Amino acid sequence: MATPVITSENKILGNNFRLYLIEESTNTPIPTENNVSLSISNESIDSTDKRVNWAQFIDGVKGWTASEEFHYTQVKEDPGFKLVQKLISGDTRTQVIIGKISEEGDIAFKGYVRISGIDISAASNELMTCSMSLTGDGELEIVEKTAAA
Fold first, then answer.
1. Burial of 90 (0-12, 13-18, 19+ CB in 10 A)
2. Which SS3 state, helix, strand or coil, does residue 81 take?
3. The whole model's pTM is what?
4. Minimal CA–CA distance to 83: which of 148, 93, 56?
5. The predicted structure's pLDDT at residue 149
């Protein structure tokens, strides 16, 4: 198998890497806007015994978090507004997709998150923004779909 060539054409631009809220009634991904980050971690458990001079570890529990910044609106259909409403109502668990979804194909991550925190900022003469912290609740699935031929 040939080694794939990585070029600027097959790299993902930051504005194409988004957080999508999964609409529960239709299972439709609704994109949110602005900045998103994803962090995946693996806990290391020390398994060193007294007979060796070097530390040894085994894999532990995996986890993931995400954060997002977006412009806050009063439009009830806006995914960001829906996420804020979910936190306020106590319904903090929701399904999301984080990545690139397009007609050329998908490369993304899918899973359930718990909304762990929201910061709303409204500086004078600037758009109101919202920063949201999300904690993965269970497995993070890799979603890959190639474009239809």
1. exposed
2. helix
3. 0.79
4. 93
5. 47
Rounded to whole angstroms, the Cα distance separating 83 from 91 reads 9
How far from the centroid of its chain's Cα atoms is residue 67's Cα?
7
| Helix spans in the chain (H) | 79-89
Q: With 0-12 CB in 10 A as exposed, 13-18 as middle and 19+ as buried, what is 83?
A: buried
DSSP reduced 3-state for 51: coil
Name the CA dihedral angle for 79, 12, 110, 112, rounded to a multiple of 10 degrees.
-50
The greatest distance separating any two alpha carbons of the chain, rounded to the nearest whole angstrom, comes to 65
CA dist 84 and 43 (Å) reads 30
> Per-residue confidence of the chain (149 residues) as pLDDT tens digits?
677 787 777 777 777 788 888 877 666 666 666 788 999 999 999 999 989 899 999 999 999 999 988 888 888 777 777 788 888 888 889 888 888 777 666 788 999 999 899 898 988 998 888 888 999 999 999 988 765 54
**87/117 Cα distance (integer angstroms):** 8
Q: Based on the number of CB atoms within 10 Å of its own CB, is 141 exposed (0-12), middle (13-18) or buried (19 or more)?
A: exposed
